[in-house]
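We now fix the convention by which a protein and its fold are recorded. Think of the row as the fold of the chain written in a discrete alphabet. Here is one such record, which you should read through line by line.
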Amino acid sequence: MEEYLKIIKSLSERTRIRILALLNQAQEVCVSEIVDTLEESQYKVSRHLKVLQEAGLVVGSKKGRWIYYQLNNNQVHFQDQILKAINYISSDILHKDLERLKTRLAKRVNNQCISGKTENYSESYQ
């Protein structure tokens, strides 16, 4: 029962729903990409990612200097159903988030995350 309560509680915040909706559409995303997409602070995004990780909905993996987050593929049926339900949420906010994410992911260099919104990406971020 506690496992289910933790998942349900993790869904009680709008930013966490927005993060899950993004991860439903992208294979893996780094924190700076989520920060730029949601237009939220790095602290707030990281805090929400931690809650989602503790609920077992999200996992992170370190690649180079970045931690990439994705949906947990080893979910129990309940988690899978929750994530499917998020796909059915129709919201202008979520649609705008997805458009911003597509734009942000297009700025990757060699399919790797880069830092910040600035247009000067000449520095190597590997």
